[in-house]
Design brief:
about 450 residues, Alpha-Beta Plaits, 2 domains, 13 helices, about 20% strand, binds zinc ion, Cyt/Met_Dipeptidase, metal ion binding, hydrolase, Peptidase M20
Protein backbone atom coordinates (compact mmCIF):
# COMPACT_ATOMS: atom_id res chain seq x y z
CA UNK A 1 0.00 0.00 0.00
CA UNK A 2 2.83 2.35 0.80
CA UNK A 3 3.93 2.32 -2.85
CA UNK A 4 0.41 3.16 -3.99
CA UNK A 5 0.22 6.10 -1.59
CA UNK A 6 3.64 7.32 -2.74
CA UNK A 7 2.37 7.10 -6.31
CA UNK A 8 -0.43 9.52 -5.34
CA UNK A 9 2.23 11.98 -4.13
CA UNK A 10 4.45 11.71 -7.17
CA UNK A 11 1.52 11.94 -9.61
CA UNK A 12 -0.24 14.83 -7.90
CA UNK A 13 0.62 17.42 -10.55
CA UNK A 14 -1.21 15.26 -13.10
CA UNK A 15 -4.25 15.22 -10.86
CA UNK A 16 -4.21 19.00 -10.80
CA UNK A 17 -3.78 19.36 -14.56
CA UNK A 18 -6.56 16.85 -15.28
CA UNK A 19 -8.83 18.69 -12.86
CA UNK A 20 -8.02 21.93 -14.68
CA UNK A 21 -9.05 20.33 -17.97
CA UNK A 22 -12.35 19.25 -16.41
CA UNK A 23 -13.04 22.70 -14.93
CA UNK A 24 -12.22 24.41 -18.25
CA UNK A 25 -14.92 22.38 -19.96
CA UNK A 26 -18.15 24.06 -18.77
CA UNK A 27 -20.95 21.54 -18.18
CA UNK A 28 -23.98 23.44 -16.95
CA UNK A 29 -26.93 21.04 -16.96
CA UNK A 30 -29.45 23.81 -16.23
CA UNK A 31 -28.54 25.41 -19.56
CA UNK A 32 -27.52 22.25 -21.42
CA UNK A 33 -24.12 23.85 -21.94
CA UNK A 34 -21.16 21.59 -22.74
CA UNK A 35 -22.80 18.46 -21.37
CA UNK A 36 -21.96 16.00 -24.17
CA UNK A 37 -18.46 17.46 -24.50
CA UNK A 38 -17.83 17.04 -20.79
CA UNK A 39 -19.08 13.44 -20.80
CA UNK A 40 -16.57 12.70 -23.58
CA UNK A 41 -13.76 14.50 -21.73
CA UNK A 42 -14.44 12.56 -18.50
CA UNK A 43 -14.39 9.34 -20.47
CA UNK A 44 -11.11 10.31 -22.16
CA UNK A 45 -9.42 11.15 -18.84
CA UNK A 46 -10.60 7.87 -17.35
CA UNK A 47 -9.34 5.84 -20.29
CA UNK A 48 -5.96 7.53 -19.99
CA UNK A 49 -5.95 6.36 -16.36
CA UNK A 50 -6.58 2.76 -17.43
CA UNK A 51 -10.33 2.65 -16.75
CA UNK A 52 -12.61 1.15 -19.42
CA UNK A 53 -15.47 3.49 -20.17
CA UNK A 54 -18.77 3.56 -21.96
CA UNK A 55 -21.12 6.48 -22.49
CA UNK A 56 -24.69 5.38 -21.83
CA UNK A 57 -27.79 7.21 -22.95
CA UNK A 58 -31.48 6.84 -22.26
CA UNK A 59 -34.07 9.02 -23.92
CA UNK A 60 -34.56 12.54 -22.57
CA UNK A 61 -31.62 12.12 -20.18
CA UNK A 62 -28.09 13.50 -20.36
CA UNK A 63 -25.41 10.88 -21.05
CA UNK A 64 -24.05 8.84 -18.16
CA UNK A 65 -20.39 7.84 -18.10
CA UNK A 66 -19.86 4.29 -16.91
CA UNK A 67 -16.37 3.15 -15.97
CA UNK A 68 -15.03 -0.21 -14.96
CA UNK A 69 -11.81 -1.96 -13.96
CA UNK A 70 -12.04 -5.66 -13.23
CA UNK A 71 -9.65 -7.02 -10.62
CA UNK A 72 -7.50 -9.98 -11.66
CA UNK A 73 -6.68 -10.83 -8.06
CA UNK A 74 -10.07 -10.40 -6.42
CA UNK A 75 -12.94 -10.31 -8.92
CA UNK A 76 -15.57 -11.26 -6.32
CA UNK A 77 -16.05 -7.82 -4.75
CA UNK A 78 -17.08 -4.57 -6.38
CA UNK A 79 -16.90 -1.00 -5.15
CA UNK A 80 -18.85 1.64 -7.07
CA UNK A 81 -18.12 5.36 -7.14
CA UNK A 82 -21.07 7.62 -7.84
CA UNK A 83 -20.26 11.12 -9.15
CA UNK A 84 -21.59 13.77 -11.49
CA UNK A 85 -19.88 15.78 -14.21
CA UNK A 86 -22.46 18.56 -14.48
CA UNK A 87 -22.12 21.83 -12.55
CA UNK A 88 -24.29 24.67 -11.34
CA UNK A 89 -24.56 27.83 -13.48
CA UNK A 90 -21.68 30.22 -12.74
CA UNK A 91 -23.82 33.36 -12.50
CA UNK A 92 -23.45 36.05 -11.21
CA UNK A 93 -20.24 36.27 -13.31
CA UNK A 94 -19.24 39.69 -11.96
CA UNK A 95 -18.71 38.29 -8.47
CA UNK A 96 -15.92 35.96 -9.62
CA UNK A 97 -12.33 37.17 -9.10
CA UNK A 98 -11.24 35.19 -12.18
CA UNK A 99 -13.05 33.72 -15.14
CA UNK A 100 -15.54 31.14 -13.67
CA UNK A 101 -14.12 28.20 -15.65
CA UNK A 102 -10.47 29.19 -15.21
CA UNK A 103 -9.10 26.28 -13.16
CA UNK A 104 -6.58 28.78 -11.83
CA UNK A 105 -4.32 27.61 -9.01
CA UNK A 106 -3.50 30.16 -6.30
CA UNK A 107 -1.51 28.86 -3.35
CA UNK A 108 -3.30 25.84 -1.89
CA UNK A 109 -6.50 26.38 -3.88
CA UNK A 110 -7.78 25.61 -7.34
CA UNK A 111 -10.64 27.83 -8.47
CA UNK A 112 -13.53 27.42 -10.86
CA UNK A 113 -17.11 26.23 -11.11
CA UNK A 114 -17.04 22.48 -10.41
CA UNK A 115 -13.57 22.54 -8.80
CA UNK A 116 -15.11 21.03 -5.67
CA UNK A 117 -18.63 20.05 -6.74
CA UNK A 118 -18.14 17.56 -8.23
CA UNK A 119 -15.13 17.47 -10.56
CA UNK A 120 -12.68 17.70 -7.64
CA UNK A 121 -14.33 14.74 -5.95
CA UNK A 122 -14.39 12.77 -9.19
CA UNK A 123 -10.71 13.27 -9.98
CA UNK A 124 -9.59 11.94 -6.55
CA UNK A 125 -11.37 8.68 -7.29
CA UNK A 126 -10.06 8.32 -10.82
CA UNK A 127 -6.51 9.00 -9.61
CA UNK A 128 -6.81 6.54 -6.70
CA UNK A 129 -7.65 3.79 -9.20
CA UNK A 130 -4.87 4.94 -11.55
CA UNK A 131 -2.34 4.73 -8.70
CA UNK A 132 -3.14 1.05 -8.10
CA UNK A 133 -2.92 0.32 -11.82
CA UNK A 134 0.43 2.09 -12.16
CA UNK A 135 1.99 0.28 -9.18
CA UNK A 136 0.42 -3.19 -9.44
CA UNK A 137 -1.12 -3.34 -12.91
CA UNK A 138 -4.27 -4.37 -11.05
CA UNK A 139 -6.86 -3.16 -8.55
CA UNK A 140 -7.53 -4.97 -5.24
CA UNK A 141 -11.24 -5.39 -6.09
CA UNK A 142 -13.51 -4.57 -9.02
CA UNK A 143 -14.14 -0.86 -9.43
CA UNK A 144 -17.10 0.76 -11.16
CA UNK A 145 -17.93 4.40 -11.84
CA UNK A 146 -21.40 5.83 -12.41
CA UNK A 147 -21.06 9.48 -13.40
CA UNK A 148 -24.28 11.26 -14.25
CA UNK A 149 -24.85 14.62 -15.92
CA UNK A 150 -27.93 16.02 -14.24
CA UNK A 151 -27.30 15.92 -10.50
CA UNK A 152 -27.48 19.70 -10.26
CA UNK A 153 -30.96 19.71 -11.76
CA UNK A 154 -32.41 16.98 -9.57
CA UNK A 155 -31.08 13.64 -10.94
CA UNK A 156 -34.39 13.04 -12.66
CA UNK A 157 -33.16 10.01 -14.63
CA UNK A 158 -30.69 8.34 -12.30
CA UNK A 159 -33.26 5.83 -11.07
CA UNK A 160 -34.18 4.88 -14.66
CA UNK A 161 -30.48 4.40 -15.44
CA UNK A 162 -30.02 2.28 -12.31
CA UNK A 163 -33.00 0.11 -13.17
CA UNK A 164 -32.06 -0.30 -16.82
CA UNK A 165 -28.42 -1.12 -16.06
CA UNK A 166 -28.98 -2.89 -12.75
CA UNK A 167 -26.69 -5.76 -13.78
CA UNK A 168 -23.97 -3.58 -15.26
CA UNK A 169 -23.90 -1.42 -12.11
CA UNK A 170 -24.13 -4.36 -9.67
CA UNK A 171 -21.84 -3.77 -6.70
CA UNK A 172 -21.33 -4.48 -3.01
CA UNK A 173 -20.89 -0.91 -1.77
CA UNK A 174 -21.17 2.66 -3.00
CA UNK A 175 -19.04 5.73 -2.26
CA UNK A 176 -21.31 8.78 -2.58
CA UNK A 177 -20.54 11.70 -4.89
CA UNK A 178 -19.47 14.26 -2.28
CA UNK A 179 -18.06 14.53 1.18
CA UNK A 180 -17.33 17.51 3.36
CA UNK A 181 -14.25 18.26 5.39
CA UNK A 182 -15.07 20.39 8.45
CA UNK A 183 -13.35 23.54 9.72
CA UNK A 184 -11.01 21.39 11.82
CA UNK A 185 -9.94 19.41 8.72
CA UNK A 186 -11.89 16.31 9.71
CA UNK A 187 -13.67 14.44 6.91
CA UNK A 188 -17.36 13.93 7.56
CA UNK A 189 -18.46 10.38 6.89
CA UNK A 190 -22.10 10.69 5.85
CA UNK A 191 -24.45 7.76 6.24
CA UNK A 192 -27.68 9.17 4.92
CA UNK A 193 -29.70 11.73 3.04
CA UNK A 194 -33.18 13.02 3.71
CA UNK A 195 -35.94 12.67 1.13
CA UNK A 196 -37.96 15.44 -0.45
CA UNK A 197 -41.49 16.19 -1.56
CA UNK A 198 -41.72 19.46 -3.48
CA UNK A 199 -45.15 20.91 -4.22
CA UNK A 200 -46.79 24.04 -5.51
CA UNK A 201 -50.16 25.19 -4.21
CA UNK A 202 -52.17 27.91 -5.87
CA UNK A 203 -55.48 29.70 -5.57
CA UNK A 204 -57.16 31.60 -8.35
CA UNK A 205 -60.14 33.75 -7.48
CA UNK A 206 -60.88 36.39 -10.13
CA UNK A 207 -59.95 36.58 -13.82
CA UNK A 208 -57.82 39.69 -13.13
CA UNK A 209 -56.45 41.85 -10.32
CA UNK A 210 -59.02 44.30 -8.89
CA UNK A 211 -59.10 47.63 -7.05
CA UNK A 212 -58.58 46.73 -3.40
CA UNK A 213 -61.73 48.62 -2.37
CA UNK A 214 -63.50 45.52 -3.71
CA UNK A 215 -61.97 43.41 -0.92
CA UNK A 216 -65.30 43.81 0.86
CA UNK A 217 -66.96 41.56 -1.71
CA UNK A 218 -64.24 39.74 -3.70
CA UNK A 219 -62.31 37.05 -1.82
CA UNK A 220 -58.55 37.50 -1.57
CA UNK A 221 -56.66 34.37 -2.75
CA UNK A 222 -53.56 35.31 -0.70
CA UNK A 223 -55.60 35.10 2.52
CA UNK A 224 -57.14 31.86 1.32
CA UNK A 225 -53.69 30.36 0.79
CA UNK A 226 -52.45 31.59 4.16
CA UNK A 227 -55.45 30.01 5.89
CA UNK A 228 -54.63 26.68 4.25
CA UNK A 229 -50.91 26.97 5.05
CA UNK A 230 -51.71 27.67 8.68
CA UNK A 231 -53.29 24.22 9.01
CA UNK A 232 -50.14 22.42 7.81
CA UNK A 233 -47.83 22.93 10.79
CA UNK A 234 -47.63 24.41 14.26
CA UNK A 235 -45.03 27.01 15.32
CA UNK A 236 -42.78 24.28 16.79
CA UNK A 237 -42.39 22.85 13.28
CA UNK A 238 -44.63 19.84 13.91
CA UNK A 239 -46.57 18.90 10.79
CA UNK A 240 -50.29 18.63 11.46
CA UNK A 241 -51.29 16.52 8.44
CA UNK A 242 -53.03 13.33 9.55
CA UNK A 243 -50.77 10.21 9.62
CA UNK A 244 -47.76 12.28 8.44
CA UNK A 245 -45.37 10.60 10.89
CA UNK A 246 -46.88 7.09 10.80
CA UNK A 247 -43.87 5.31 9.30
CA UNK A 248 -41.16 7.29 11.08
CA UNK A 249 -39.04 5.24 13.47
CA UNK A 250 -36.99 6.59 16.37
CA UNK A 251 -33.19 6.70 16.18
CA UNK A 252 -31.41 3.46 17.00
CA UNK A 253 -29.02 3.25 19.96
CA UNK A 254 -26.08 3.40 17.53
CA UNK A 255 -27.49 6.47 15.80
CA UNK A 256 -27.96 8.23 19.13
CA UNK A 257 -24.41 7.43 20.21
CA UNK A 258 -23.11 8.92 16.94
CA UNK A 259 -25.28 12.01 17.33
CA UNK A 260 -23.91 12.57 20.83
CA UNK A 261 -20.37 12.51 19.44
CA UNK A 262 -21.06 14.63 16.39
CA UNK A 263 -19.67 18.16 16.85
CA UNK A 264 -22.01 21.08 16.27
CA UNK A 265 -20.99 24.61 17.16
CA UNK A 266 -24.29 26.26 17.97
CA UNK A 267 -22.86 29.71 18.58
CA UNK A 268 -20.79 29.81 15.40
CA UNK A 269 -23.77 28.55 13.41
CA UNK A 270 -26.09 31.18 14.83
CA UNK A 271 -23.65 33.98 14.20
CA UNK A 272 -22.98 32.73 10.64
CA UNK A 273 -26.70 33.09 9.84
CA UNK A 274 -27.39 35.99 12.17
CA UNK A 275 -30.16 34.16 14.01
CA UNK A 276 -30.80 34.42 17.74
CA UNK A 277 -32.80 31.29 18.36
CA UNK A 278 -33.52 27.97 16.62
CA UNK A 279 -37.01 26.63 15.87
CA UNK A 280 -38.86 25.83 19.12
CA UNK A 281 -35.82 26.98 21.10
CA UNK A 282 -33.96 23.77 20.19
CA UNK A 283 -30.49 23.37 21.67
CA UNK A 284 -27.78 20.73 22.19
CA UNK A 285 -28.65 17.22 21.09
CA UNK A 286 -32.12 18.38 19.96
CA UNK A 287 -30.51 20.44 17.20
CA UNK A 288 -28.47 17.50 15.94
CA UNK A 289 -31.46 15.17 16.11
CA UNK A 290 -33.54 17.64 14.10
CA UNK A 291 -30.88 18.07 11.41
CA UNK A 292 -30.49 14.33 10.96
CA UNK A 293 -34.02 13.12 11.55
CA UNK A 294 -36.83 15.66 11.55
CA UNK A 295 -39.22 16.02 8.63
CA UNK A 296 -39.91 19.62 7.62
CA UNK A 297 -42.61 21.67 5.94
CA UNK A 298 -40.80 24.69 4.53
CA UNK A 299 -42.26 27.57 2.54
CA UNK A 300 -39.70 28.02 -0.22
CA UNK A 301 -41.46 30.98 -1.84
CA UNK A 302 -44.77 32.81 -2.08
CA UNK A 303 -46.08 35.12 -4.76
CA UNK A 304 -49.21 37.24 -4.80
CA UNK A 305 -50.17 40.84 -5.54
CA UNK A 306 -47.89 43.85 -5.54
CA UNK A 307 -44.42 43.46 -4.01
CA UNK A 308 -42.46 46.25 -5.70
CA UNK A 309 -41.51 49.73 -4.45
CA UNK A 310 -44.05 51.92 -2.70
CA UNK A 311 -47.75 51.29 -2.16
CA UNK A 312 -50.29 49.90 -4.55
CA UNK A 313 -53.79 49.13 -3.37
CA UNK A 314 -54.59 46.02 -5.32
CA UNK A 315 -56.60 42.87 -4.77
CA UNK A 316 -54.64 40.06 -6.42
CA UNK A 317 -56.41 37.56 -8.65
CA UNK A 318 -54.21 34.64 -7.61
CA UNK A 319 -51.67 33.43 -5.07
CA UNK A 320 -49.02 30.73 -5.31
CA UNK A 321 -46.74 29.06 -2.80
CA UNK A 322 -43.92 26.54 -3.23
CA UNK A 323 -43.30 24.16 -0.36
CA UNK A 324 -40.56 21.63 0.27
CA UNK A 325 -41.15 18.83 2.72
CA UNK A 326 -37.99 17.01 3.83
CA UNK A 327 -38.71 13.37 4.47
CA UNK A 328 -36.94 10.80 6.64
CA UNK A 329 -36.46 7.04 6.13
CA UNK A 330 -39.56 4.95 5.44
CA UNK A 331 -41.66 7.96 4.38
CA UNK A 332 -42.92 7.41 0.84
CA UNK A 333 -43.15 10.69 -1.14
CA UNK A 334 -46.21 9.46 -3.09
CA UNK A 335 -48.02 8.47 0.08
CA UNK A 336 -47.16 11.76 1.77
CA UNK A 337 -48.45 13.67 -1.24
CA UNK A 338 -51.74 11.78 -1.05
CA UNK A 339 -51.93 12.60 2.67
CA UNK A 340 -51.40 16.29 1.93
CA UNK A 341 -54.12 16.27 -0.72
CA UNK A 342 -56.65 14.60 1.55
CA UNK A 343 -55.71 17.00 4.36
CA UNK A 344 -56.66 19.94 2.12
CA UNK A 345 -59.88 18.26 1.06
CA UNK A 346 -60.84 17.33 4.63
CA UNK A 347 -60.27 20.91 5.81
CA UNK A 348 -62.41 22.46 3.11
CA UNK A 349 -59.62 23.62 0.80
CA UNK A 350 -60.66 21.70 -2.31
CA UNK A 351 -60.41 24.94 -4.31
CA UNK A 352 -56.63 24.98 -3.82
CA UNK A 353 -54.78 23.53 -6.78
CA UNK A 354 -51.82 21.38 -5.93
CA UNK A 355 -48.99 20.18 -8.15
CA UNK A 356 -46.18 17.78 -7.28
CA UNK A 357 -42.77 18.70 -8.70
CA UNK A 358 -40.39 16.25 -7.20
CA UNK A 359 -40.43 13.29 -4.88
CA UNK A 360 -37.49 11.42 -3.44
CA UNK A 361 -37.30 8.98 -0.54
CA UNK A 362 -34.72 9.26 2.25
CA UNK A 363 -31.93 6.77 2.79
CA UNK A 364 -29.74 5.81 5.71
CA UNK A 365 -26.93 3.27 5.92
CA UNK A 366 -26.73 1.30 9.15
CA UNK A 367 -23.69 2.51 11.15
CA UNK A 368 -22.90 -1.11 12.04
CA UNK A 369 -22.52 -2.10 8.37
CA UNK A 370 -18.98 -3.48 7.86
CA UNK A 371 -18.45 -1.11 4.92
CA UNK A 372 -18.74 1.85 7.29
CA UNK A 373 -15.75 0.57 9.27
CA UNK A 374 -13.69 0.30 6.04
CA UNK A 375 -14.34 3.98 5.44
CA UNK A 376 -13.73 4.97 9.07
CA UNK A 377 -10.36 3.20 9.15
CA UNK A 378 -9.30 4.78 5.86
CA UNK A 379 -10.33 8.25 7.08
CA UNK A 380 -8.39 7.79 10.31
CA UNK A 381 -5.26 6.70 8.43
CA UNK A 382 -5.35 9.49 5.86
CA UNK A 383 -6.75 12.44 7.85
CA UNK A 384 -5.90 11.40 11.42
CA UNK A 385 -9.49 11.97 12.49
CA UNK A 386 -13.06 11.97 11.24
CA UNK A 387 -16.68 12.67 12.15
CA UNK A 388 -19.60 10.34 11.45
CA UNK A 389 -22.86 12.00 10.42
CA UNK A 390 -26.03 9.91 10.80
CA UNK A 391 -27.78 11.77 8.00
CA UNK A 392 -27.20 14.85 5.96
CA UNK A 393 -30.03 17.38 6.38
CA UNK A 394 -30.21 17.68 2.58
CA UNK A 395 -31.50 15.40 -0.17
CA UNK A 396 -29.89 13.23 -2.82
CA UNK A 397 -30.83 10.13 -4.82
CA UNK A 398 -29.20 7.78 -2.30
CA UNK A 399 -32.39 5.81 -1.84
CA UNK A 400 -32.40 4.87 -5.55
CA UNK A 401 -28.90 3.41 -5.25
CA UNK A 402 -29.56 1.65 -1.94
CA UNK A 403 -32.82 0.09 -3.13
CA UNK A 404 -31.96 -0.80 -6.75
CA UNK A 405 -28.37 -1.96 -6.18
CA UNK A 406 -28.99 -3.19 -2.62
CA UNK A 407 -25.66 -1.84 -1.47
CA UNK A 408 -24.67 0.36 1.48
CA UNK A 409 -23.88 3.97 0.51
CA UNK A 410 -21.38 6.13 2.38
CA UNK A 411 -20.30 9.66 1.55
CA UNK A 412 -16.77 10.90 2.05
CA UNK A 413 -14.74 13.38 0.04
CA UNK A 414 -12.52 16.41 -0.30
CA UNK A 415 -14.87 19.40 -0.18
CA UNK A 416 -13.96 21.89 2.52
CA UNK A 417 -17.10 23.29 4.22
CA UNK A 418 -16.33 26.80 3.02
CA UNK A 419 -15.53 25.81 -0.60
CA UNK A 420 -18.30 28.13 -1.86
CA UNK A 421 -19.96 25.42 -3.88
CA UNK A 422 -22.83 26.74 -6.02
CA UNK A 423 -21.42 30.28 -5.38
CA UNK A 424 -18.85 32.58 -7.01
CA UNK A 425 -15.17 31.75 -6.43
CA UNK A 426 -15.79 28.04 -5.81
CA UNK A 427 -12.53 26.30 -4.98
CA UNK A 428 -11.00 23.00 -3.93
CA UNK A 429 -8.07 22.78 -1.55
CA UNK A 430 -5.05 20.96 -2.99
CA UNK A 431 -4.00 19.42 0.34
CA UNK A 432 -7.48 17.95 0.77
CA UNK A 433 -7.56 16.62 -2.80
CA UNK A 434 -4.32 14.74 -2.10
CA UNK A 435 -5.42 13.39 1.28
CA UNK A 436 -8.76 12.31 -0.16
CA UNK A 437 -7.09 10.49 -3.06
CA UNK A 438 -5.07 8.54 -0.51
CA UNK A 439 -8.18 7.97 1.55
CA UNK A 440 -9.90 6.51 -1.54
CA UNK A 441 -6.91 4.16 -2.08
CA UNK A 442 -7.22 3.00 1.53
CA UNK A 443 -10.99 2.50 1.24
CA UNK A 444 -10.46 0.32 -1.85
CA UNK A 445 -7.77 -1.66 -0.05
CA UNK A 446 -9.71 -2.09 3.23
CA UNK A 447 -12.83 -3.08 1.34
CA UNK A 448 -11.01 -5.68 -0.75
CA UNK A 449 -9.62 -7.32 2.38
CA UNK A 450 -12.93 -7.50 4.18
CA UNK A 451 -14.52 -10.97 4.16
CA UNK A 452 -17.51 -11.38 1.86
ZN1 LIG B 1 -23.86 20.65 -6.33
Amino acid sequence: MRRVLRQVDSDFSNLVSDLQKLIRQPSVSAKNQGIEECARLVSKIMRKSGIRTQILKISNATPLVFGEVRSKKNPTKTLLFYNHYDVQPAEPFELWDDEPFSGKVKGNKIFGRGSADDKGELITRIKAVESFLKVHGDVPCNIKFVIEGEEEIGSAHIESYLKKYRKKFACDAVIWEFGYVDSKNRPIIGLGMKGLLYVEMSVKEAVRDAHSSLAVIIKNPAWRLIEALDTLRDPSGKILIRNWYDEVEPFSKEDLALLQKEPFDERAFKSEYGVREFVAGKRGIEVKKALAGDPTCNIAGMISGYTMQGAKTVLPASATVKIDFRLVPRMDPKKQFARLKSHLRRNGFSDIKIKRYHGEAASRTNPTDPFVSCVRDAAKDSFGNYVVNVSNAGTGPMHSFASVLRAPCVSIGSTHVFSRIHSPNEYARLDLLKKTTKCMCLIIDNFSKQAN
